[in-house]
């Protein structure tokens, strides 16, 4: 009987390879992870040493064991291999270790928006800063100037195609918060649990960066839909811990009032000082003003 060549051997051990991938309980693999799988199992699978990694991957792709996804980032192309099924959210968080879903993606997964966002938002927290910065009182003119300009947005956007649909991933780098309010979540959109900001943390994030949530109208709608599904006390506790320079408590009070929350809920904001005029979003051209919260907001909201 003639000796099997390396491609025939691959075909022969295909069930073993598939079973091994299944046993890892993982559906997205990087290049280095697949290289390690080949290295650690080559002998057990009786694969000749001349079998290259490219041949191994090509065989698995040809036999539909895995799918290859190319993700374009501003710096480089990232390759991901999918075994079984994977949602675009899972691919997005696989791009950076310790990242989690946030902003509009979290609103969607918590069913706080009726829209299906075209873009995916992931957050990877910056390293903690151990040097305490001295906090000085802000000047009103500094706030006015900052919010007269466009919101600063990331230019770190990844792009990939999955099942003939194109996706953009906003790769955010937020302030270090020790993953405050981040939890593992199972959803109808996810084939396995992923880390996502909870409702309280999500509402804070979209108040701070409304353009990462479809705009202030979407944020207001999220507060309406979230009524009875979250703890305002927990949200305010998070806000204190997050220690923002700007008075975002004024915006939260405004949204709660506009969304129809009871006065006993609004009174929880009384423990926060209101000393500045503030803005619901950036570059508001046609403004109304809330006397209670000292907030400028788009007319007609």
List keywords for this structure.
alpha+beta; Beta Polymerase, domain 2; 11 helices; elongated
Protein architecture, described:
The protein is α+β, with helices and mostly antiparallel strands. It has 2 domains: about 1-85, Arc Repressor Mutant, subunit A, CATH 1.10.10; about 85-300, 2-Layer Sandwich (Beta Polymerase, domain 2). Helices cover about 35% and strands about 20% of the residues. It contains 11 helices and 12 strands. It has helices at about 5-25, 30-40, 55-60, 90-95, 105-110, 140-145, 200-210, 215-225, 230-240, 250-260, 265, and strands spanning about 30, 65-70, 75-85, 100, 120-125, 155-160, 165-170, 180-185, 195, 280, 285-290, 295-300. The strands form 4 sheets. A 4-stranded mixed beta sheet has the order 4-5-7-6. Helix 5 packs antiparallel against helix 7 and helix 7 crosses helix 9. The longest helix has 18 residues, at about 5-25. The protein starts with 5 loop residues before the first helix and ends with a strand. The mean pLDDT is about 95.
Order of helical and strand elements: HEHHEEHEHEHEEEEHHHHHEEE
Shape by Cα distribution: elongated
CATH topology-level fold name of the largest domain: Beta Polymerase, domain 2
Q: Which spans have pLDDT < 50 for at least 5 consecutive residues?
A: none
Largest sheet report = 4 strands, mixed
Number of strands: 12
Question: What's this, in brief?
Answer:
This protein is α+β, with helices and mostly antiparallel strands.
């Amino acid at each position: 009987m003639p000796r099997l060549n390396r491609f025939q051997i691959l075909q022969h051990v295909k069930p073993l390879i598939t079973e091994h991938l299944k046993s890892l309980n993982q559906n997205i693999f990087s290049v280095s992870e697949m290289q390690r799988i080949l290295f650690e199992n080559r002998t057990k699978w009786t694969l000749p040493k001349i079998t290259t990694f490219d041949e191994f991957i090509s065989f698995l792709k040809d036999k539909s064991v895995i799918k290859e996804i190319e993700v374009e980032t501003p710096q480089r192309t990232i390759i991901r291999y999918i075994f079984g099924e994977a949602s675009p959210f899972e691919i997005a968080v696989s791009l950076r270790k310790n990242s989690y879903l946030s902003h509009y993606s979290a609103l969607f997964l918590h069913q706080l928006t009726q829209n299906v966002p075209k873009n995916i938002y992931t957050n990877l927290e910056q390293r903690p800063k151990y040097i305490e910065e001295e906090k000085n009182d802000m000047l009103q003119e500094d706030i006015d100037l900052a919010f007269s300009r466009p919101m600063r947005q990331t230019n770190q956007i990844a792009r990939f195609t999955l099942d003939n649909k194109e996706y953009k991933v906003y790769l955010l780098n937020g302030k270090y918060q020790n993953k405050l309010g981040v939890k593992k979540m199972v959803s109808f959109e996810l084939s396995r649990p992923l880390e996502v900001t909870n409702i309280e943390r999500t509402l804070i994030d979209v108040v701070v960066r409304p353009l990462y949530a479809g705009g202030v109208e979407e944020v207001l709608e999220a507060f309406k839909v979230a009524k009875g599904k979250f703890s305002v006390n927990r949200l305010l506790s998070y806000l204190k811990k997050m220690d923002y320079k700007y008075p975002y408590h004024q915006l939260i009070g405004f949204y709660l009032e506009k969304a129809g929350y009871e006065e006993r809920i609004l009174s929880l904001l009384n423990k926060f000082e209101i000393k500045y005029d503030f803005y619901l979003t950036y570059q508001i051209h046609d403004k109304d003003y809330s006397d209670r919260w000292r907030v400028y907001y788009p007319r007609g909201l």
